[in-house]
Amino acid sequence: MHFLQRWSPKTVGLVAAFITVVIWTGFIVIARASVKGTLTPFDIGLARILGASLVLVPLGGWLVRQDSQRASSLFGLSPLSLRITATCGVFGGLAYAALAYSGFTFAPAAHASVLMPGSLPLWTSLLAVPLLGLRITPVRALGLALIVTGDLLVGGASLLKAFDGGQVWKGDLLFMTASLCWAIYSVLTRRYALEPVRATVAITVFALMTYVPLYGLLLLTGVLHSQLLAAPLGEVLFQMGFQGLGSVVISGITFNLMVQHYGPVRSTMITALVPGLSALASVFVLGEPLYWNLMAGLALVTGGILFGVRKVQSTK
User: Whole-model pTM?
Assistant: First the structure.
């Protein structure tokens, strides 16, 4: 990461924002398409962790050996202390992936477009008040209100249909919870002033050492059913590549760079483009419908985020 020192903070932030938005948009569309394929959501979660671990676990061991004076844990593979590794790993590694992939089995990508990246500024702002001492200004509160209204337009309709036997509300709830988990992780990285690469390595090492044994145990006991061996090799390798290398390694580092330069609240507001781009991509790529409530929800969420980031650039 030494080459970044030759770039200005503004350039680093802009590049990190662009890469994060592109990968997050692709993540939503590809994850929705993937759960309709051979692999189960928990198979995709395994592929995500294994793909990222191929790069980040050796890197973690190297980082620990290079600076033995720093705290390390998990057999010298995580470059952070066990407490920070476990805390960030639960929210940013295990819970986020499991909840997000499970949500796509119930709800379409357009819902995820609004409820996951769209809810991040709300959750992050609420968490940053007690944890980072953030002050929510009236302007920012108005932007957050627009986000909540947009979320209700999208998720409210499916909740009303729950009594009729509808299943979409389950996906919406999972998406919102996944967003909360990522918001907790982003605030923690700011609170602990974590370096982007070390934070990404730590949550991946933690996920590898907890998710994989649990996944195997649940398979042996018959609680989970896996399609990993039945899936085409190309599908498995693609998931390891995009979900692991793309969503975890690359966007994990670029998102943390955003948090480092802009703060957690402004970083989540910068992702304002993700809801609109991923919802539109799901229409053209996956053929999903874009109903009026989704369009209105997208407009309100995007407007709330853009309004907030435009007016509060002097605060983080």
Answer: 0.81
